[in-house]
Amino acid sequence: MAPIHTQPLLSVRDLVTVFEMPGRSARGVDGVSFEVGQGEVFGLVGESGCGKTATCRSILRLFAGAPARIERGEILFGGLDLLRLDEERLSDIRGAQVAMIFQDPMTSLNPTMRIGAQIGEGLRRHQKLGRAEARRRAFELLASVGVPNPASRLDDYPHQFSGGMRQRVMIAIALACRPKLLIADEPTTALDVTIQDQILKLLLRLKNEYGMSVLIVTHDLGVVAQTCDRVAVMYAGRIAELAEARSLFRNPRHPYTRALLKSLPGLEIEGRRLAPIGGAPPDLARLPPGCRFHPRCAYAVAECRAQLPPLILVGEGHATACIRHESLP
Amino acid sequence: MTSGRRALRSPSFVLGMGLLSAVVVGMALTPLSPYDPVAVNLSEALQPPNASHWLGTDNLGRDVLTRVMAAAWIDLQIALVCVALPFALGSVIGAVSGYVGGRTDAIVMRVVDILWAFPFYVLVVAIVGSLGPGIVNMYLAFTLVVWISFARIVRGEVLVVKRAEYVLAARLLGFSHPRIVLRHILPNVITPAIIYAMADVVLTIVAVTSLSFLGLGIQPPAAEWGLMIAEGRNFIFDAWWISTFPGLAIILVGIAFTLLGDGLDDVLRPKG
Amino acid sequence: MNSAAPLLQVNSLVKGFPARRSLAALMRGEKPRALQAVRGVSLELATGETLGLVGESGCGKSTLGRCIAGLYRPTSGSVFYRGEPLHGRETRRQSSRRVQMIFQDPYASLNPQLSVERTLAEVIRVHGLAKGRSAIADRVDELLLQVGLSPQAKSQLPHTFSGGQRQRISIARALAVEPEIIIADEPVSALDVSIQAQIVNLFIELRERLGLAYLFIAHDLNVVRHVSDRIAVMYLGQIVEVAATRELFRQPGHPYTRSLLSAIPKPDPDHRSHSVSLEGELPDPHFPPSGCNFNTRCPLVVERCRIESPELLEHSPARAVRCHRAFQVEVG
Tell me, what's the pLDDT at B265? Predict the structure, then answer.
């Protein structure tokens, strides 16, 4: 269980990230605050467009050319506010103390560079290792992420690996400099379920070995349940509910969380209709007034339209952004 | 965003259209000129730009401005036809070849590869040279040579689009092959060809004027930019205006179409 | 038409793709290896039944679906509709009214240049299912309502619709020819979870209203569980198990099915699995293992598995397993 009382490793406070598009701007992340503790697995879960990916990209300011601008907020890591760092200082931290892995291993690896060189790149940049030393360490890393025949694989190119293997390589690259925090953005979404199972268990094992924290972004509640200590459910750029994983699943205190759990197939009797959430997530450039979920909410009342509900504590480490949480069963 | 609005937001498109419109307006005003583009008037010969002849006169006393505008009619017309014909021929061949695949496609592509090996000018000059100068022969020469570029572009797109699920759905719904190619494939592959066509207009204008410059295209006394440059060659130091202004006209039109092509790219293939 | 014959019957279907050698391989003198995507699949579908087809990447389920629909010609084997060959006997237009297909990618399933109305009207007109502009327009409206869309939107182009809505339009297009069988190839995989539920419900509703039979292809067992009467599990081009849905989940007979089920992350933090469900990687389909395809990863593997390929044996009516050690659970 994650220690809640020691100093958090990462503290995101009131983060607002705006995406500018011709003619309209949307607040992809609109006032998000949460903390990731030492050695903890923290999940950011929600559907597409909820802001979970935008949030984790804001932490390292890796927007890949998207027209994003961080309007305000603080991201505290190891005593520094990452948002106030200049590009050069931030790039010292990227890869060395905070690493990131992405969804699509196909496009995340350089197709023209051998795997050994890609793993070693970070080592040579951040730890100033020589070529032979970096290669040796790359070999160890490949072995530790479960790639068979690591010695010969060091000289292979990405296209010679399967999807699951490429993801392992990405993990090896990310862990090369022993980061304190690993951000995993939908790391297994593109993989088959049996490979997903392998990769998730690998991540958990390595987390324990390296003593690092993991911020995992996913849309899959099953993944959250199996890997996360604490979870934040996001909707339309804000956090709807934040709790320990057990509390979230046993006692969800936000209508969106409840509806998501109910709409999962496989839990109910076959043949019975699933209970989807009617409607669709709002256009971030044209948000409804007040609570963003109220147009689709079975418990909405007039007050819900009046103002944005704040996150309120409803239990030990359990917060919800719903003013009607007491009326929920 | 509608394509109309995108068009207005693209600086290339607006500039290109603006320039082209200016050219078209100039062309429309040509009949208003008091001067005849071909009539010889030796007493007025070799005048530098002045109040009555804004761009001067050439060695035969003809008003340069009138001739430049008259030449625009000829050059643009030829250029557009010399792009439209290969565009049509090449697109159809490329689409059919890409769609049918197999041996047909292999044969067509080998023909394309062989023709591709010859430098463009060599082939065009060879054809026009053997058939003799004249407009129709120029149309023929360009069509026979340029279709391969369009065929390649369209075929490449077709190879991708024919695997798209909406094309598979059309097959599954029992649509005939002509219907699939004409209604479902061609409209979705033609955009790169259109954009290339814009660039091709510029290349064609240069080619057409070059052919006439060499004496293989339009013949005197017609007003044609390449011809005018050739005729002004001998006077380049004393009467620079005879060759310079047609040259500038070519450049201007080239810029207009290049910008228009970029602009069309922004409109038809919006990025981001 | 034979009324006693099943609605759809597939017999020993094989589909191979010719190999393409790289220049380097050619220079090395390597022989071309064909890729056998489907290695002898037989199945049956009854009127109004839904057969779920599951498996991970490379198992051949999509290829199988496309062969049955008629997009690919099988290398060998046959597909029968009510006792008669499905393809080859009739024109493509006629057989298109028996089997239709829904594809995975809603963003590529509709011609981006045609409005919804024109897309649907074209189908109706080509098949002569309604004559005259107003009759066609009425039918278009009817189809849209049937899939839960407002006819008001019919003059819009596909890019104005969301993924879920586009899938609905694709379904409407398929229904326009009034097919009896719909092959749905991962129809909800590209959609958000809450939209997935909506579309799955739509499939169930349409089945009840129109008596459709489905071949429902997916990699997500939970989704398949909801719609299917029976489920077939595929691995490396072969069916390894077929069972009634409830039975498959209650008592999986094949070790791969068992691994697949246990690998699904359960949304229950109180029950966390700690050991990996299935080790190893999928073998290269160009070089399948000798004996049983699954032997390289199977927790129950014994010597026999490496030598002898198991047959798909019926253990009880509606339950078949391709395994020498079907239903056994102890290792070794």
Answer: 85
| Number of domains composing chain B | 1
Q: Is A298 in CB contact (< 8 Å) with chain C?
A: no
Helix ranges restricted to H, chain B: 3-9, 11-29, 64-100, 102-117, 120-131, 135-161, 165-172, 177-179, 186-213, 225-232, 241-268
Chain B interface includes C141 (CB < 8 A): no
Question: Can you give the pTM of this predicted structure?
Answer: 0.86
CATH number of B128's domain: 1.10.3720.10
Instruction: For residue C311, give both structure tokens.
Output: 């047959």
Q: What residues are paired with C214 via a beta bridge?
A: C50, C182
Report the pLDDT value the prediction gives residue B272, as an integer from 0 to 100.
Answer: 46
Angle ∠(A218,A279,A301) on CA atoms, nearest 5: 100
Cα B210–chain centre separation: 13
Domain of residue B151 covers 3-28+63-268
**How far off is chain B from C299, nearest CA to CA, in Å?**
39
Please name the residue that has the structure tokens 């599990």: C233
Among all residues of chain A, which has the CA nearest to that of C198?
Answer: A276
* B96 occurs within a structural domain: yes
B43 is a domain residue: no
The answer to whether C55 touches C222, Cβ cutoff 8 Å, is no
Residues whose CB is less than 8 angstroms from the CB of residue C150 and which lie 6 or more positions away in sequence, other chains included:
C144
Token duo for residue B135: 């407009």
Token pair for residue C200? 């799955």
Q: How far is CA C329 from CA A112, A195, B11, C111, in A?
A: 46, 22, 70, 50
Higher pLDDT, C21 or B228: B228
Given a cut of 70, whether residue A27 has pLDDT beyond it is: yes
Residue C35: what pLDDT? 87
CB-based contact C267 A249, cutoff 8 Å: yes
Domain contains B53: no
Q: Label each residue of B151-193 as H, E or C.
A: HHHHHHHHHHHCCCHHHHHHHHCCCCHHHHHHHHHHHHHHHHH
Q: Is A227 a residue whose pLDDT tops 90?
A: yes
Tokens of B234: 């001998």
Residue B264 lies in a domain: yes
What are chain A's domains?
10-228 (3.40.50.300), 238-267+275-327 (no CATH)
Q: How far is CA C220 from CA A328, B261, C196, C243, in A?
A: 31, 46, 11, 17
